[in-house]
Amino acid sequence: MEPVLLRARGVPNSRHIDTYLAAGGYEGLKKALTMDPEAVTKEVLDSELRGRGGAGFPTGRKWTFVPKEHPGPKYLICNADESEPGTFKDREIIEYDPHLLIEGIAIASYAIRANTAYIYIRGEFVRWARILETAIAEARQRDILGASVMGSNYRLDVWVHRGAGAYICGEETSLIESLEGKRGFPRLKPPFPAVVGVFGKPTVVNNVETLACVPSILTRGAAWFASIGRPRNTGPKLYCVSGHVRRPGVYELPMGVTFREIIEEHCGGIRDGHTLKAFFPGGSSAPVMTPDQIDVKADFDACAEAGSMLGSGGVIVLDDSVDMVEAAANLAHFYAHESCGQCTPCREGSDWAMDILDRILEGHGRPEDPATLLRICQYASQGMTICPLGDAFALPISSIVKKFPYEFERHIAAATPRPPKKLPVLPWAGPRPGFDGQ
Length: 438
Ligand SMILES: Cc1cc2nc3c(=O)[nH]c(=O)nc-3n(C[C@H](O)[C@H](O)[C@H](O)COP(=O)(O)O)c2cc1C
What we know:
The chain is 41% helix and 12% strand. A hairpin with a 5-residue loop joins strand 7 and strand 8.
């Protein structure tokens, strides 16, 4: 497949607006401006584009939820937080083709009748925030953004907003809270952001890769986009592959290639002398998959049918050198650190899971530990928390416990019971004259 999202990778001076314009850039926006906003949304609906941020929600459908007759402002937010472990695709788009993203943002904003768009980017991504600011300035200078977008009567301002670096702020409602200057605590849904979003106004939140797909849908048509992949799972997809493969990196492939093609063909297979043990198909929040699932298609529906999820498209590959209990502990440390603390099952559960996994690794595991881990994970998932961070920690950890029980048994069988903790004798713990009846 000829690259669509990464077509600028390797092109000299690819970030400059002139390079983008010379390659036919902003033609999609020009075309969109000649259409009704509803017709633009219809084109995206027909393309069957689904969100690339994790949940795979149909993009066009999300846009239709914005109330057309809302009297006040509406907003578009581009989610460039990209904090999911094993995910580094959005930065690849910004690195080589920031104007592709800006064009997607402009088309989406026009479709929902927003005059202000924000790009919310993780604070540590200083380089990419600067690239975006430069590109926005170029677009303003050429009147592609601003009071009269490409000479039309449509106004659009785009702002880069830097977060402070928290995984939870990638979740759309925490992102909105953070953008409003508050602590990044998720909101209860409904109401959904499309109805009550940033500053209480209708807001669409879309991922960088999702928005970068939009210009080509306008220029080449919905039918072309839908012809890539299979129904409900369409278009080009960025797979970012990390871990024990020979050639890790970001690969643009038609949606629905198999994990075997990704791992063996494109990434050159597992590093020398080792075999595949497991892989996370869509970032660290996705339930782990095993070598017998390598022929599963890397698309939304196939991953769900296989008991996992395509998530962010971050394929993390683990070879036979990996201790899966260590892998689970590694995840638990991340999620315990990143849980925002608002919901007890996530805040306490991730901490307890971390403590239990650490105890097993320290050689003090107990036979009941795997069952306790599963119970903790069950209470943190299945809608028990305001946002899906509870699921994000619980599902991968419980999948490891279920799929690799013998690794837990091995650690626990070799364990030595921990001596009972000696509690310190506190100076005020003794009998108090005159108070305790003495
Ligand atoms: C804990 C958590 C972290 C998330 N992090 C991101 C992120 O970094 N980038 C992103 O685009 N979506 C992230 N999401 C998903 C967003 O909430 C939202 O679904 C997405 O931005 C919508 O865009 P899309 O429809 O284009 O996929 C996260 C969700 C959760 C629960």
